What we know:
Elements: H1 8-27, H2 33-54, H3 58-65, H4 69-74, H5 82-91, H6 102-111, H7 126-133, E1 145-153, E2 165-174, H8 200-207, H9 230-249, E3 256-257, H10 262-272, E4 275-276, H11 286-292, E5 298-311, H12 323-339, H13 347-352, E6 359-367, E7 370-379, E8 382-391, E9 396-403, E10 410-418, E11 425-428, E12 433-436, E13 445-451, E14 463-466, E15 469-473, E16 476-482, E17 490-498, E18 515-524
Parallel strand pairs: 3-6, 4-12, 13-14
Antiparallel strand pairs: 1-2, 2-5, 5-7, 6-7, 8-9, 9-16, 10-13, 10-17, 11-12, 15-16, 17-18
Helix pairs in contact: 1-2, 5-6, 9-12
Amino acid sequence: MxxxxxxxxxxxxxxxxxxxxxxxSDTKLVRSVDGFLVKLNxxxxxIEDFAKTFGYNPEELFRKVLTYPEVIEVLKPLAGYAxxxxxxITSDPRHKSLRPYxxxxxxxxxxxxxxxxxxIPIRQSHNELEAAKVKSEPVQYIPVYIxxxxxxxxxxxxxxxxxxxxxxxxxxxxxxxxxxxxxxxPQPISTTLARLYESLNTIxxxxxxxxxxxxxxxxxxxTSTPTTNLTVDNIKRAALxxxxxxxxxxxxxxxxxxxxxxxxxxxxDMVYNNYFGHCDLRGMIPNYWYTRLGGQHYVEENxxxxxxxxxxxxxxxxxxxxxxxxxxYSIDHVNNMVYNDAASNxxxxxxxxxxxxxxxxxxxxxxxxxxxxxxxxxxxxVNWTVPPTYNENTGTFKACGYLTLNNSQIESVIVYRYEPxxxxxxxxxxxVVVKDTCRxxxxxxxxxxxxxxNSNMFYLGIKTIKATWWEIKGNMFCIEFNWIPSxxxxxxxxxxxxNTIGVKHxxxxxxxxxxxxxxxxxxxxxxx
Length: 528
C-alpha cells in the first residue's frame, strides 16, 4: 500500500520543479555564453546527485528540465550559439561536467527560435585576467560571490500582529593562499584574538616521522591553551565530514583535520573586529598570519559569512544564532562552496576538491547576527629537519627537510612581493553591517628566483638569487640563500616540488599538474 504522493513520478516532478525555478531565477541576468554554461553546470550537479540517490537517469532528467517553458524562454538568447557552446564545453575543463550532455544541449539549442539578443561568447575569467599580469603566479585568483536566503514567513496571529520572517544574507569567499614563518610583527595582536589550540611544535611532531626532531624557530610564537569548547569542535568535525563526503563522490582522498588554531584565529579576528574578507583591516593577506602564527606548509583560505536579521524586512534586530544554527550554516557553506560557486568561477570548489590538499584546519565563530566559517586547505608534504627560518639581521633564509611525495624532488624557489592595501567597504543587511575588505587576493608579483650556487641558469624578467647552500638528494633537500626586501611590502618565499600524487582534479586537470607549492614563508621588512 502506498500513497500517490510518494510515487517516483511525484518525487521526480517535485525535484524538477524545484531546480527549474531556481535555475530560471539565477539565469535571468546572464549576458555571456560562458555565463549560461556556468549556470548549467550547477544544474547538472544537482541532477546527478539526485539521480544517484534515487536511481534516476540523469540524462533523462536533464532532457525533462529543457522541456519547461520557463527554461526554454530563459535560454532563448543561446539560440544560434550551438557551435560556441560545443567549442567551450569540449575545450574548457571548467565545463567538463556538461560533456556527457553535449548532444542533448546542442540539439536543444538548434531547435530554439532565433533571438536578437547578442551574447559575449566567453567572459574572460578573473583567473585569466590575473594570469595576464603575472604569468608565473601559482595562486589562483578567486572572487567572491553572494547568495541570499530568506526564511519562511511565520503564521499570522489572530490578534492581527504583522507577519515576521527571517532574512539571511550569506556571502562566500575563497581564495587561495600560501604560508609559513615571519620574523616581524608590525603591530601586537590583541589578546582577545590570540586563541590558538596547540603548540605548533607538538602538532608538527605528530604528523612527522616518530624519530623526527623539530627545532624551534627564533620567531616569537603566539600560543594559548587548547580549546575545550566541544560545541565548536563538533561543528568543525561536522564541516570536515561533509567535505570528505563530497570528496568521496569524486574519488578523492579524504582530508585529515589539523587543528592548528590559525583558521580559528582568522574567524575570531573577523567576528570580533566586525569585518569580512581575506585581508585584515590593515590590508594583510592570510599568508602573513599563517606564517606569523607558526604555519609551516602551504595553505589556501576559504571563508564564508552569514548575517541574520530577525523581524521585519527593515528590522534592526540581529537574530540570535543557536548552536544548531551554527552547525547548519557551516554545513551549508561547505555545500555552497562546492555546488553553488558559479559566481566565483568555481574557485572555492576547485580548492576544496584539490587532490594536492591533504589536511584541513577549520575555524568557526559567531555572535548575535553574524557567523564566520574559515576553511584552510593545507598541502602538508614536507617533514622538516630544519624548519624554515629567516634571520632578519643577515637576511638569510634556510630550510631542510624531506618530501613525503613518492619520487618527488624540489623544482624551484620563487619570491613574491605583495603591497598591503586596506580596502574597506560594507556588506551585510539592514541590521548587521560588516566591514568588507578584499574579496580576493594573490601573493602578488614574482620578483626573484633562486638557483644553485654554481648554476649558469637565470630567471627572465626577475632577479636571480644564487643560493649559498643548495643540496638536493632524491626527496631530501637543504636550501639557504640571502634575501633582504627592498621595500616594506610583504614578501613570500615559495618552494615548489614535482607533483607525483597521480590523482587529477575532477574539474581542472591542469591545476598543479606538474608542480605543487609545498611551502610559503612570509617576511616583511623591519620598520625603522
